[in-house]
Amino acid sequence: MSKNAAVSLIPADPPHFTGGRVMDVDQLKRRPRRDAERTTNDILLAAMHEFSEYSDTVARIDRIAHRANANKALIYSYFGNKEGLYEQALREAYVQIRSGGRELDLEALPPPSSRHTPCKRAGPVVASAVLPV
Fold first, then answer.
1. Cβ neighbours, 10 Å, residue 54
2. Measured CA distances, 79 to 20, 37, 54, 61, 68 (Å)
3. Plot region of 66 (φ>0 → left; ψ -120 to 50 → alpha; else → beta)
4. Which of 11, 19, 78, 98 has the fewest CB atoms within 10 Å, counting from its CB?
């Protein structure tokens, strides 16, 4: 080794420190990337289950976070608060219902008058609640 040759103390691929353990560059490249869209969908699915089981007032963000394998701070970051998450979960449920309705073959059904029989016991109170005025 000549006198002018510099000795590098830094390895060519330095280790990276993550979570208290050392990872080399190859491990870092193989590590799955975070996917915000997938995480958002997981949170929405967990929220729809939570809200359907417990209602919007009794539902808990920590249970939603546990179901979605996310943390509460991330949920608040994405949706603002529980009301924002509830609103987005309702919107997603509506989208799923509408897309499921498009798959129905409604043209194959008989006309409404032949498949609908009015309820004889429905009084004016029930009828006014069901029928538009």
1. 13
2. 30, 13, 19, 11, 14
3. alpha
4. 19
